[in-house]
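Office hours follow-up: a student asked to see two folded examples consecutively, so here they are.
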Amino acid sequence: VSWIKPGISTFPWWNGNVVPDTLNAPGNNFVTNQYYIDFCARNGLQFHSVVEYGLHQWYVDDGVGFQPGPNADVTKPVPGLDMKEICDYGKQHGVGIRVWVHFGALYPKLDTAFAIFEKWGLTGMMVDFMDRDDQEMVNMQTEILEKAARHKLHIQFHGAYKPTGLSRTYPNEFTREGTLNYETNKWNPEGMSPDHDINMPFTRMLAGATDYHLGGFRAVPKSKFKTQYTRPLMVGTRCHMLAMYVVLESYLQMLCDYPAAYEGEPGFEFLKNIPTTWDETIVIDAKVKEYITIARRKNNDWYVGTITNNEARQLSIPLSFLGEGNFTADIYSDADDANENPDHLIKQIKEVTKNTVINLKIASGGGQVMRLSKVISQ
């Protein structure tokens, strides 16, 4: 199972497939995908997702909107798109290539499609719009996982029912949706609220990995939120978003915004290096519907994420879970003006031990996140 390698993926559908104006190549083509692959390579990200552009699939389809037509064919890219060329380019730069596919277009050609996908060099895919949980659909999802494994493909189920443990049998299932999430910020006039986010660790996440469209990097106060299908906005602070990568477990995490939204922005250096699998998890403090602090360990490093609902609050985090010795803490906290400017944060670096207590001042819809790295004695 050495081919099963979780990680972080782009997902340009969410941001509206944004590319620089100077690129002059919008749409599903090599140049657009090259731009995102280069972004992944520069920043050590594991995957790029080839998705639909607007409501136009990357594969031949005569359907309307997202719904596949009678001649939809996931084995035939649209004219001008060479999937093997994209996969080869990704491989040369250490970036795995994934695709989005509609279940209704994939399933009738499952065996043929998976064989071709493997030949192209794909690493996996998001399978979307199943929208059922009857026995037939359960059987079909199991079949998808089993056959995908034969072709060394990982699966992300979207528009799917909550986890039931299939990932224990088929570890190539990296994550699944089964919850309302940030994708709705593209059309929901209210925006996804931190009041909703805080319920996830206590409810949906108990069932397993949670696909949540993480990564929006343009937060505004609730009063200024509006729907935008391209470059969607977020409600909740940037530190809230950073902490969600620790609070929510998913073996495949998204960076769903566009490259220029990240590079050079405070906090992106944290996301570039966030693990997606963990060796140990501890809930430090939590209150249903209000706040939660979770610590997760990967090798010798600890990551601690705290999110709150729409109420500002002060909390204390004892670091008694740490082992002996000194640790370097990279701490990202809401700035003092985060209620008005939710993208603002403060980064601190300090040395801590298991006797240290970190005091938090969290904005409305805010959060805090930290990485604790063991100091190695010379």
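And the second, which I mentioned at the end of office hours:
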Amino acid sequence: MIEWRLPTIMDEPPPPYHFGGPLSTPPPAAVAHNPLEQLRRYIIEIMGFTFDANFSLLNEALGQTGNTSSSAANSILSPDERARLLNLATLIQEVEAKISDKSAQWLAVRSSERKAIADAVIRPALYLGIPAGYCLEMVSTYADHQCDGRKRSLSFVSKRIPYLFCTLKSLEFLGVFNLTMRVFHGHLWLNACITEFVAFNEEIQVVLANAIDIYQKEVLGIKRIYHLNMYLKAQNWEDVVETLISKDERKKIRSRRWSRDRKKGRRTG
């Protein structure tokens, strides 16, 4: 099922998801206690890796210029953050496998595991206004690659490069009628949209945007994106969202965000 909603930002979500807005960079000590800000850092890390962004510039944009460790060249996260992200990604994969299993395995998901994933990814994603299932899948891929440059083929976007990509790319003249490439273009476009709303400031947004542009044109050889404002919803990940967060809670979060967006004159889609 193909569905799209333009990402929006909720400026004052309830605690503990206080959101200072796109121009604020939280102090590192505060991030671990704020699931919303932590998710934004996780996504910036994963997207930086996916599109081979300049991590020196990302660290500088985050005000982390004092970080002289060897990991600073390819990460914005502290060792503790990377360890927490790996644990979270591994847990998401395990829970998704149980929920997707057509047996009683979903009953083996502990309440503590449900809460951990809902608090760390689903609720913050909903408050940001970006697809929660998409974020779950994106974060889960960290367990496969851990942002290791030698494993870039395992990144969230690389795994979506269509089979017979070169052949399909030669049919770009078909534009929106080249459905397989159109769906892949939709993934690239959605990643760009998500980048806009997880960036703490304009500099981070510019660094990631430049990396995506280079990846699209120089690595993939795609000159133009036919996006049509859509993304392909993976039902298995939507099932995880629906299992861990009640429909009523999802509706309340969206309703509150849309109400605030309307007051601010933002387009919600």
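Two things to take away from it. The chain has twelve helices and two strands. The first strand starts at residue 2 and ends at 3.
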